[in-house]
Amino acid sequence: MRIINEKNYGLEILRMILCFWVLCFHCLKESNNNIILSFKRKMFHVPSFFCISFYFLFPVIKSRNINKMRQRLIRLSISYIFWPLITFSFNNILFLLKIKSRYKRFLLLKELIMQWIIGRKFFGQFWFLFNLLLLTIFFFILSLLFSNKYFFIIIELFCVISYILQYSSYNYTFFDFYPDSISHSVGHFVETFPIAVFAFILYNIGLMNILLNCRYKSLLFSIIGNYFIFKYEIFKTIEIYGKKYNYNGFDKNVFAILSFISFYSIPFDSQYLKKIKVFIRLISNYTQGIYCLHIIISYYSSHYLHQKRTFNGCIIIYLLSYIICFIGTKISFNTKMKYLFI
Fold first, then answer.
1. Which domain holds residue 136?
2. CA distance linking residue 255 with residue 190, whole number of Å
């Protein structure tokens, strides 16, 4: 079945929304708006990012395209390696100069090495890239070793095991013995693995081609489905020792898939929407760079932002990150360093 691979402007909008959602999760502290606070507290942004990423990875996995896989790994690795290195260096220089440094201490080389090994030490949000990189490598190796049929048998088996480990609490009781740098990085593998698998299945069965034949029904029912998940928590919430864990449970996976379907189904086919498409392409740029930069920008701009922890402050941080990414792509002169910003 033919899969539509052109740029989907609905998904571009979704990526931008998810990026801002992540920023609000990390930076928003004060708001009188209960709807905004409710969105901040829900943990659906990261699963939705994983769904988009692995949906578009599957053609590379299926075709065993080594060149495209290498390009993807290089793109992810440049951000994964250099942003912690830049943060490490900048912090230590400022600390030695007795200027306000982010961590208010001298970061050790072993902390930088640990950051690279597990994706979380002083640059906490990079657990996401750590999971993304490791799962990408794992899936690609599996695709080289097995045919498409057995590839799916193996990953679906692991998917079932992952949910068993989640709902039985074994994953969490095991990682609770470790510090957050490990439990909130390596410990997330079991949570993120099923999301990647379902994204692969979504692509492999050509579901989006089928749903586009009834585009408006797909859009309506996916929105309704996510409303019930978000509002009424229709899936059982996993709690261990009174704590709710971030990305576990069927609800995260289903919400991510329905979000994907709803935004994918938004009609942008009309020739009269050319200017709107240009605008969407413009405002949805640099989401990875903004994701990497936003906490840094939030800290170093906090002295100048009167609304630093508010919704308006989050918008300012997003715009500042966007501008820096725009400038960064220009001064990188189309070298691989542009991957720090796009």
1. 9-18+34-286
2. 17
